[in-house]
Amino acid sequence: MSSKSYDEIFSDFEEISSHYKRSDQYFDILYDSISSTTIAKTPSAENFSINAKKSGIVARTFLGTWKEVAIDENYKVSEIKQRIPKLINKGDAITEFESWEMNKEIKPKIDSLNVPIDEKIKNVREIFNYVKNVDERIINVQIRYLESLIERIFVNNEGCKLRQVIPRSRLYIIPIAREGSVVDYDYLIKSGEMGFEIFDFIDNDALDKAVQNSLDMLNAKLPPSGRNTIILDPKMAGLIAHESFGHGLEADQILRGRSYLERHLGKQVASEISTIYDTPSLDKKLGSYFFDDEGIRAGHNVLVENGILKNFIYDRRTASELKAIPQGNGRRESFAHPVNVRMTNTYFGSGDYDLKEMISEVKEGVMLVHGYFGMEDPLGGGMQCTSKKAYLIENGEKTKTLKATALSGDVLTLLKNIDAISKDALKLDGGTCGKGTEDYVPVTSGGSYLRAKNALVSPG
Question: Which residue among 87, 160, 327, 353 has the highest number of C-beta atoms inside a 10 angstrom radius?
Answer without folding.
Answer: 327
